[in-house]
Recover the amino acids of this structure.
């Protein structure tokens, strides 16, 4: 049975007027009335400055804002030529609003990708209006590698505070690097670039319906780009600044979404990564990953307690998921006092691979399985904070690199776990 | 011509620009002349034009195609004698064709008697008729206009051992309008030609008449004072005559040359012209709409002159650097095509000889606000020769037929003032008046029809313009209105078919009648009016309410 089209007639009518474009910037939104105008300005300024001859469109995919975000998008003022003479830009700029009934990131990204394919966009970028640092330079740095250098996927690089983004730096990046063999640092970013070629490749895939990637479709797109041999690169954008307002991050949800997506990608691309060893650096535009030197502001005591309690509560499950030696070590860690806890790279690597293998064999409901990683992640992070309380950014970066190398070194263990489930049975 | 002396004839005119030298040679010396031009007035009358703008035909060393004038009140022997001009003028008037001639106010040839006197000594009575200086460091802020050939606006005169000021070529010294005698002399020149019966003057290079230290020496208030005085005298003694300004400036600066309706009658809209070419190449209406929205209102008795090409390079002075680079990359890939800050090509080659694109540009020319000027030869799609040096590649002999010298002259081909265009695409065997007259769907026949339709109503020449903004940016749509008469013009700027929905609710109930074929289109209602258009297609609809 033919799938009902998810693109609305209203969107199609707008795209008819737009016609073919060279550049597309997608802006997902949900109640971003205060910041959407800045996102529009960033896109239009980048067109004016770096791509004056290219045909361009900005697509706002809104997930049901009730604060007037789409209207604010359409009515945001355009770049004005301060001289008041001559053209403000060579070409008409287009702004298109798409309303997405299903408010999942996957549905939003799918709309952007499908739109890119319909208008035959050559270079595309997705940016988030919630990113405080978003500027014309960001948009330009995401589009340039595709537009001018013929890359297909552009992952961002940020300057982060040294204790920021640890889920990415201590789990997602090292693990994806080891599995897929490409050093893409930011798999969860809200900004990235891609080519029309990649859009065409991704547009009609069944993966858009997969529950595991609904909240992290960009992870899947990156994995697809890598495994389908598209040209990938990274481009430095600038400081990653957290939005001033907004609810605190729910770690359980974040891990379920991010790690679940990563595991699912590993599941679906296993034929690709099983043959690969080591990892390759990517072409990088601008400076590489940067860490800035700010003090941590975390409740270490609480993290430690949550680790210990989590290990205790999930003991039966961990016994199922983990290799016996891994499990024994972790149980031992949970008995140590807060000054002695050291969740080293070797143990962390084996832990992650045990979970990945268990995920592959579906030893548990997969969501529950991934969530069971949360307390162990807390233990790892606690250990990281202890170890690096006084470290310089360079020292922290060196340690992270060691973690990456450890995961790469232990990849044969992952493959072994992948091929046969743990011998422990409940 | 029996007509009200106060008529605004120039607003309703379609003007045809030519150089006598290029049009028709009657005495077989290889150079066009007035007698030859007179023979071709039937053709021009048949085409439907209302006025001729003649490029300079005065005695001159011809180092700048006649804009270096050595005698203002005579005719260059190459083109005949004064009596030939008078005869031509009478026949033109008999056919209802007005004649506009050049008046180069700003400078003369260095061979002009005035300059010869002026340079002869510092005590000569005409010394002060030009701008002299012992140093070359005055007026430092004035830009150099002919960048490809001139390094300075000052030239050293070895005769009088001092510098003289020239905004154009160094052999064209600037007249000094701070000297009232210069003004009176030029007024005398105007009276000479007005007394013969000419209908108007194109005043060349008007922004540069006056110099002042600390300024860029363009568009100074004193210049406007001079023009106002000329206009005052013209209106008092020769009502119904017209002054056309050549001021290559931004619209806001050019509009000041209309004054309060007491300076120029008309002025060229230079910035619009490259943007028409830009819009078609970009397939985007933005350049046209934006420049017209920057164009201020002008007095009721004033009019813009609009054009596609002329004898000069397609100037890219009044565009941004980005726009200029785009135009060079798209229309002048071969650097031989570029000169000064412009492109020295004709209309048809710039359109890659695509008949549809040529027609589209002509439609835009004939339907936008202003008096249109057709450059000779563009009505048949003549080509150019970029290897002829300076801007001579767009000034080749008119191509009348496929025979001897294209019917331009019976002289030996080697004697012609310029080689003919002879390649298989644009050569005179392929592109000529005679063959196009025989074919009802030739470009010439189409142009004639287009002019006829334009002149069927004064809406085009005197009406307002309101841009519609359909979401399809490749479609340029606007409504021209004069009193109750409304015309809807829709242009597809794209090389591919387009669908466009127009919001015409304000015209609800009107019936669009296509003006060329006079066919009815569906009545306008509440819903968006859907049109589908072929590549580069245009519609002109008269909106009738019945």
């Amino acid at each position: 049975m033919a799938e009902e089209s998810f693109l609305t007639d209203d969107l199609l009518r707008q795209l008819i007027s737009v016609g073919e474009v060279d550049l597309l910037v997608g802006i997902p939104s949900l109640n971003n009335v205060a910041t959407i105008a800045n996102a529009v300005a960033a896109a239009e300024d980048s067109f004016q400055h770096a791509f004056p001859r290219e045909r361009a469109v900005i697509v706002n995919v809104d997930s049901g804002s009730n604060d007037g975000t789409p209207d604010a998008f359409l009515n945001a003022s355009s770049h004005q030529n301060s001289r008041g003479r001559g053209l403000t830009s060579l070409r008409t700029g287009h702004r298109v609003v798409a309303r997405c009934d299903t408010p999942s990131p996957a549905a939003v990204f799918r709309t952007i990708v499908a739109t890119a394919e319909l208008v035959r966009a050559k270079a595309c970028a997705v940016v988030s209006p919630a990113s405080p640092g978003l500027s014309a330079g960001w948009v330009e740095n995401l589009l340039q590698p595709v537009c001018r250098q013929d890359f297909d996927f552009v992952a961002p690089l940020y300057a982060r505070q040294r204790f920021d983004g640890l889920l990415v730096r201590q789990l997602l990046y090292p693990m994806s690097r080891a599995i897929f063999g490409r050093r893409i640092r930011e798999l969860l970013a809200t900004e990235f670039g891609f080519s029309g070629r990649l859009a065409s490749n991704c547009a009609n895939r069944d993966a858009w319906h997969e529950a595991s990637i609904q909240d992290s479709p960009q992870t899947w797109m990156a994995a697809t780009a890598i495994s389908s041999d598209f040209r990938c690169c990274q481009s430095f954008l600038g400081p990653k600044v957290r939005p001033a307002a907004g609810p605190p991050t729910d770690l359980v949800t974040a891990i379920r979404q991010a790690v679940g997506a990563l595991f699912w990608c590993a599941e679906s691309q296993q034929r690709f990564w099983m043959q690969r060893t080591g990892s390759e650096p990517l072409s990088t535009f601008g400076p590489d990953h940067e860490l800035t030197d700010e003090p941590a502001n975390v409740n270490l005591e609480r993290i430690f307690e949550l680790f210990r309690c989590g290990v205790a509560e999930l003991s039966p499950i961990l016994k199922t998921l983990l290799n016996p030696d891994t499990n024994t070590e972790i149980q031992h860690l949970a008995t140590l006092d807060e000054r002695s806890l050291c969740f080293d790279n070797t143990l962390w690597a084996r832990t992650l691979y045990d979970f990945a293998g268990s995920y592959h064999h579906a030893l548990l409901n997969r969501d529950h399985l991934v969530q069971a990683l949360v307390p162990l992640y807390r233990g790892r992070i606690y250990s990281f904070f202890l170890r690096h309380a006084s470290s310089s950014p360079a020292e922290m970066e060196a340690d992270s690199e060691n973690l990456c190398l450890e995961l790469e070194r232990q990849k044969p263990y992952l493959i072994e776990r992948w091929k046969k489930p743990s011998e422990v049975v409940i | 011509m029996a007509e009200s002396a106060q008529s605004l004839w120039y607003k309703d005119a379609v003007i045809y620009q030519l150089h006598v030298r290029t049009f028709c040679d009657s005495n077989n010396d290889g150079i066009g002349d007035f007698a030859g031009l007179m023979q071709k007035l039937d053709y021009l009358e048949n085409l439907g034009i209302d006025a001729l703008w003649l490029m300079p035909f005065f005695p001159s060393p011809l180092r700048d195609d006649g804009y270096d004038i050595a005698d203002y009140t005579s005719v260059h022997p190459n083109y005949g004698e004064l009596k030939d001009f008078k005869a031509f003028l009478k026949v033109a008037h008999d056919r209802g064709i007005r004649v506009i001639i050049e008046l180069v106010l700003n400078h003369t040839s260095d061979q002009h008697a005035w300059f010869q006197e002026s340079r002869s000594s510092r005590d000569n009575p005409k010394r002060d008729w030009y701008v002299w200086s012992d140093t070359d460091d005055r007026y430092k802020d004035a830009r150099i206009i002919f960048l490809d050939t001139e390094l300075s606006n000052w030239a050293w005169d070895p005769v009088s051992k001092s510098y003289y000021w020239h905004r154009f070529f160094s052999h064209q010294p600037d007249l000094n309008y701070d000297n009232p005698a210069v003004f009176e002399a030029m007024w005398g020149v105007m009276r000479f030609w007005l007394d013969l019966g000419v209908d108007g003057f194109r005043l060349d290079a008007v922004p540069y008449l006056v110099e002042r230290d600390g300024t860029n020496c363009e568009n100074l208030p004193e210049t406007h004072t001079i023009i106002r005085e000329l206009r005052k005298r013209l209106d008092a003694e020769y009502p119904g005559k017209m002054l056309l300004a050549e001021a290559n400036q931004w619209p806001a600066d050019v509009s000041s040359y209309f004054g309060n309706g007491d300076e120029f009658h008309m002025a060229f809209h230079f910035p619009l012209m490259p943007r028409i070419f830009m819009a078609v190449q970009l397939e985007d209406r933005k350049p046209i709409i934006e420049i017209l929205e920057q164009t201020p209102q002008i007095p009721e008795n004033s009019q813009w002159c609009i054009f596609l090409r002329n004898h000069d390079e397609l100037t890219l002075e009044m565009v941004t650097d980005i726009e200029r680079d785009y135009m060079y990359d798209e229309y002048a890939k071969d650097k031989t095509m570029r000169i000064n800050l412009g492109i020295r090509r004709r209309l048809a080659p710039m359109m890659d000889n695509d008949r549809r694109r040529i027609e589209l540009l002509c439609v835009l020319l004939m339907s936008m606000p202003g008096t249109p000027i057709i450059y000779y030869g563009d009505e048949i799609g003549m080509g150019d020769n970029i290897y002829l040096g300076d801007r001579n590649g767009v000034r080749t002999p008119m191509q009348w037929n496929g025979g001897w010298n294209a019917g331009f002259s019976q002289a030996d081909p080697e004697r012609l003032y310029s080689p003919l265009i002879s390649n298989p695409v644009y050569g005179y065997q392929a592109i000529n008046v005679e063959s196009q007259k025989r074919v009802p769907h030739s470009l010439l026949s189409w142009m004639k029809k287009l002019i006829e339709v334009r002149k069927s109503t004064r809406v085009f020449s005197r009406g307002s313009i309101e841009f519609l903004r359909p979401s399809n940016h490749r479609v340029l749509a606007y409504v021209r209105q004069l009193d109750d008469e409304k015309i809807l013009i829709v242009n597809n700027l794209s090389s591919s078919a387009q669908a466009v929905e127009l919001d015409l609710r304000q015209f609800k109930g009107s019936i669009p009648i296509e003006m060329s074929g006079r066919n009815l289109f569906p009545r306008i209602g509440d819903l968006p009016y859907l049109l589908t258009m072929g590549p580069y297609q245009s519609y002109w609809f008269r909106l009738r309410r019945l």
